[in-house]
Write a structure and sequence with these properties.
Belongs to the homogentisate dioxygenase family. The chain has about 475 residues and is mainly beta. It contains five helices and 28 strands. It binds 2-(3,6-dihydroxyphenyl)acetic acid (OMD) and fe (ii) ion. The site of 2-(3,6-dihydroxyphenyl)acetic acid (OMD) has 7 residues, from loops.
Length: about 475
């Protein structure tokens, strides 16, 4: 039976703020007062620390959460390699050593739905750079899920923080720290190590599809606002963290109990699995600043030029994952929301450019102002990759249209939202991304730029004509 919107939302409660210190207890009195690890924590719970940074990381970067749970996370049988899904995940044969490095522009038709897959088996690595073992780099995925993860299944990644960008289908994400409802036009971040289960929230059999970015190093922060001032772009109060919620399904010790809960771990780009006899979702209370969160992209406060020229897309940065080099990100998550363009004597779409950063783009809905939609175009559920120094920009028709446009104030992108994972790293493309998925558009470059016209005239005075 379809779950109504109201019922859906009732299940979820949030606390608001970015990079905040939160505390939450599902049972009053579950959090110890004034200390973290009393001899006997309240209500017979175990205290467990979840560290997202080194113990000694500087205070302003330090991330950790104290969990108060029925049984500690360590009480499970050993993990063993999980055979099948590694291949579907594109994680078989050491993907990070077998990448394809391609200077050409790449574009993908919408990725297929997969009625058989759940979130984990439907996750496909498309591109990436670095090495999770060295905690360096990032990876770009698409996912397609036709069914919920099993009620007793949980997943975590030891490799990095995962940013999820649903494109179709709302996700009911149960995490150790509580529940998040993440719909298309919302995003969420699940930190390294946090166990979670993804269910299809619609409950009507409609499938889910989307994109994901895994960050092997550092973490997502809000970009500096500089002269923009103290508000704008994504505002801290619009980020939402879950409240504690738990199940009690367990026996007297970690070794008895009626159910087997299957926990899948992503560890150095391979999957491992164990079956334990108690639920991993047994956290009754928590406090800390290391937690999953979500954000509604509709709340993004877009700014732009009100005079002339097209500014850099960095003004559209929602979240940034900085490298050690100031202003240079391992990955930025950038959106292109509906906005007004008012620039005078300005070519309004993106300029032609080559970038030392790599640009992986996706489309959540609608169209993108610099690219045609339709068959063989840039369409929702598809993607493009303009790698380091790959020339790109508006396709020929978009160029002609914008060159000849009557420059009235114009709203672009109504009802649409494109996004970009922009990385300072050169990304490789997996075999799955280049071949297996069969979505690469062979004619992308020709289709877009084959018809770019020569406007050049040697005669002075004809330049702007
Ligand atoms: O390539 C793209 O479409 C993304 C992009 C948009 C923009 O407005 C400026 C630069 C840029 O790379
Ligand atoms: Fe670009």
């Amino acid at each position: 039976m379809p779950v109504t919107k109201f019922e859906l939302e009732e299940k979820y409660q949030y606390q608001n703020g970015f990079d905040s210190y939160f505390e939450s207890e599902a049972v009053p009195g579950a959090l110890p007062v004034g200390q973290n690890s009393p001899q006997k924590p309240p209500l017979g719970l175990y205290a467990e620390k979840l560290s997202g940074t080194a113990f000694t990381a500087p205070r302003h970067e330090n991330k950790q959460t104290w969990l108060y749970r029925i049984l500690p996370a360590c009480s499970h049988p050993p993990f063993a390699p999980a055979p099948a899904p590694n291949e579907s995940l594109g994680l078989g044969g050491e993907p990070f050593r077998n990448m394809h490095y391609i200077p050409n522009q790449l574009r993908w038709d919408p990725f297929d739905h997969d009625p058989e897959a759940d979130f984990v088996s439907g996750l496909h690595l498309v591109a990436g750079a670095g090495d999770p073992a060295l905690k360096q780099g990032c990876a770009m995925y698409v996912y397609a899920a036709g069914r919920s993860m099993d009620d007793r299944a949980a997943f975590y990644s030891a490799d990095g923080d995962l940013l999820l960008v649903p494109q179709e289908g709302a996700l009911d994400i149960r995490t150790e720290l509580g529940r998040l409802l993440v719909r298309p036009m919302e995003i969420c971040v699940i930190p390294r190590g946090v166990r979670y289960q993804v269910r299809l929230a619609a409950g009507d059999g409609s499938p889910a599809r989307g994109y994901a970015l895994e960050l092997f190093q550092g973490r997502f922060v809000l970009p500096e606002l500089g002269p923009i001032g103290s508000n704008g772009l994504a505002n801290a109060r619009d980020f939402q963290a879950p409240v504690a919620s738990f199940d009690e399904d367990c026996g007297a010790t970690a070794s008895d109990g009626p159910h087997e809960f299957v926990v899948t771990a992503k560890f150095n780009n391979a999957l491992y699995r164990t079956a334990q006899r108690h639920t991993p979702f047994d956290v009754v209370a928590w406090h800390g600043n290391y937690y999953p969160y979500k954000y509604d992209l509709g709340r993004f406060n877009t700014v732009g030029s009100i005079s002339f020229d097209h500014p850099d897309p960095s003004i559209f940065t929602v979240l940034s994952a900085p490298s050690e080099r100031a202003g240079t990100s391992v990955a930025d998550f950038v959106v292109f929301p509906p906005r007004w363009l008012v620039g005078e004597d300005t070519f309004r779409p993106p300029w032609y450019h080559r970038n030392t950063m790599s640009e992986f783009m996706g489309l959540i809905r609608g169209g993108y102002d610099a690219k045609k939609g339709g068959r063989g175009g840039f369409v929702p559920g598809g993607a493009s990759l303009h790698n380091v120094m790959s020339g790109h920009g508006p396709d020929a028709d978009s160029y002609e249209g914008a060159r000849n446009a009557d420059l009235q104030p114009a709203k672009v992108g109504a009802g649409s939202c494109a996004f970009m994972f922009e990385s300072c790293l050169m990304v490789g493309v997996t075999d799955w991304g280049l071949k297996t998925c069969q979505k690469v558009q062979a004619a992308y470059s020709d289709h877009s730029w084959g018809g770019v016209k020569v406007h050049w005239k040697k005669t002075a005075g004809a330049g702007g004509a």
